[in-house]
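Supplementary notes for students who missed Thursday's class. We covered one full example, reproduced here. Read the sequence, then the structure, then the short commentary at the end.
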Amino acid sequence: MNKLRLRRLDRVYVPAPIYFVTACTYARARWLTCTEIHECLVTFCSQGAKRGAYVGRYVLMPHHFHLFVSFQTETLRLSDWMKSLKNTLSKALRAKGNRAPHWQDGFFDHVLRSSESYQHKWLYVKDNPVRAGLVSRSEDWPYQGEIYPLTL
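Structure (token representation):
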């Protein structure tokens, strides 16, 4: 007997997906874990709601960051938003005397498929400072937080 198999979907449409994003500094320069950069990230992400960009949880590591973002408008594209975020953080890095280039080309992104994957990814990401030996408990890491609660 020959069973019919369902084809894999070519495309799944989710109106406002949550993206898991990672970006790294150029040559893994350890520039990101300071108050000025943290405040710059929080300010940029907090103002994003005016344009339909909502950042959930995030972690700044010395040479990369992870964050979760969702767009409530189809006019915003992840690549454009990331370019703007990197440019904003670069301005703050220049103000601290860090010369360009500041960022590796591109970034890593992944569309989350369920609320469990958001929680699962966050549990992994929030422990990055512990795995890196920067703190003994993830709660002690000062360069993390949540701007807006995100749900799928």
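Commentary. The radius of gyration is 17 Å. The chain has a mean pLDDT of 92. If anything here is unclear, bring it to office hours.
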